[in-house]
Specification:
Elements: E1 3-13, E2 22-33, E3 38-42, H1 49-57, E4 64-69, E5 72-73, E6 84-87, H2 99-108, H3 118-131, H4 147-159, E7 165-169, H5 177-194, E8 197-202, H6 205-211, E9 214-219, E10 222-227, H7 229-234, H8 239-244, E11 251-258, E12 261-264, E13 267-271, E14 278-284, E15 289-291, E16 297-307, E17 310-316, E18 325-330, E19 341-346, E20 351-354, E21 360-361
Parallel strand pairs: 3-8, 3-9, 6-7, 7-8
Antiparallel strand pairs: 1-2, 1-4, 4-5, 9-10, 11-12, 11-14, 12-13, 14-20, 15-19, 16-17, 16-19, 17-18, 20-21
The structure holds adenosine-5'-triphosphate.
Adenosine-5'-triphosphate binds next to β2 and α1.
Length: about 375
């Protein structure tokens, strides 16, 4: 089932009563989640992700705008009539109930003709438990489970009513790094297997990029960019999106364009056809540097760090906005010599230019300046 958000806006009275006025948590959000896709809603703390999710599930009413599940306008429906499954950061399992009883709970709460028979309830609960691979733990209490297992119970509990839409709000925040990785792959598998349209809220860009069909990047209530993770990473529309996506982050330098050539300091780095003379912010992805004896960009090398397959060159340059920057270089396994000065050639597709307002500058080189 596709989910359509139409000009969705949510305003709250300001919590700071002295300051007065309103906080616009979500501002004119329009987006269609295609049937069966997993959408990652992404942005820094306070950007409006959770509020958007709460409006989709009906826990909060929009100030204006409409929400459709398929053709059905659900904007004014209470949560229990929307057919959504919800998983929160605090999975809030009932501690006195077993895993099976926790999963059964939403079914037992159904009323009238929606309430399945006892056998059918059990069958569905066991099936949901099997899907998240906890069917061998049905008799345990939550306190006898690991964090990852508890989160799976929460997912099974959300799936047991066979919702048309699954909503996940930072579901992995309470897990340690390894379990996070494992559980996010698990969520992806379950989502693929069930084909449930899913919205996944996270502030962790790596998490969102790795499991989403599409990401929506938000800032201060406003959608900045939507698209496939790789497309948004390669082609960010502004400086905020460029810096928010990527680990290590994109490196920023003061530069200028003169006669369709990009300069950092006195060095001419790249032709940038179609871009007018101006001061620019130059963003260079860490993987955009190629060490080359005659390369046009000279930097001071402070140290190198081996990162398995790759080597990270930690460098300085007077035009860099930070004290140091990182170039990730593919290692061929041979010992590298570490001169004090390194020269780089830049991969044109990994160099992004922004104007003084942070908007992306695109030349005539198909955006690959
Ligand atoms: P986080 O990642 O920290 O959960 P978020 O992106 O989910 O952040 P929201 O919780 O949606 O952000 O909040 C968006 C904005 O709306 C914030 O400025 C927040 O302070 C404000 N806000 C949220 N709920 C309320 C409320 N009930 N009353 C007043 N302001 C609120």
């Amino acid at each position: 089932m596709n989910v359509t958000l139409q000009n969705l806006t949510k305003k709250f009275p300001n919590r700071n009563k002295k300051a007065g006025g309103e906080v616009t948590a979500v501002n004119d959000f329009t987006f269609e989640v295609p049937d069966g896709q997993l959408i990652g809603l992404l942005g820094p703390s306070g950007c409006g992700k959770s509020t958007t999710l709460y409006m989709i599930c009906g826990l909060q009413a929009p100030t204006s705008g409409r929400i459709f599940f398929g053709d059905r306008d659900v904007t004014d429906l209470p949560t229990e009539n929307r057919g959504v499954g919800l998983v929160f950061q605090n999975y809030a399992l009932y501690p006195h109930m077993t895993v099976l009883q926790n999963i059964l709970f939403p079914l037992e709460n159904l009323k009238g003709k929606d309430r399945p028979g006892k056998e059918e309830m059990r069958r569905r609960a066991v099936e949901a438990a099997r899907l998240v691979q906890i069917d061998s733990l049905l008799d345990r209490k939550p306190s006898e489970l690991s964090g990852g297992q508890q989160q799976r119970v929460a997912i099974a509990r959300a799936l047991v009513k066979m919702p048309g839409v699954l909503l996940l709000d930072e579901p992995l925040s309470n897990l340690d790094a390894r379990l996070r990785l494992q559980t996010r792959e698990e969520i992806r598998r379950i989502q693929r297997q069930t084909g449930i349209t899913t919205v996944f809220v996270t502030h962790d860009q790596e998490e969102a990029m790795s499991i989403s069909d599409q990401i929506v990047v938000m800032k201060e209530g406003v959608v900045q960019q939507t698209g496939k993770p790789q497309e948004v990473y390669d082609n960010p529309c502004n400086l905020f999106v460029a810096t928010f996506l990527g680990t290590p982050p994109i490196n920023l330098f003061d530069g200028r364009v003169e006669k369709e050539t990009l300069y950092i300091g006195g060095e001419a780095l790249l032709p940038v056809p179609g871009i007018a003379d101006q001061a620019v912010t130059v963003g260079i992805r860490p993987e955009g540097f190629v060490p080359e004896e005659q390369g046009p960009f000279s930097c001071r090398l402070l140290r190198t760090e081996i990162m398995g397959r790759d080597v990270s060159f930690v460098c300085t340059n007077d035009a860099c906005r930070k004290e140091t920057f990182r170039a990730i270089i593919q290692s061929d396994g041979t010992e590298q010599s570490h001169p004090e000065t390194v020269r780089f050639r830049l991969k044109p597709g990994k160099v992004l230019l922004f104007d003084e307002n942070g908007s992306r500058l695109r030349g005539t080189n198909h955006g690959k300046e």
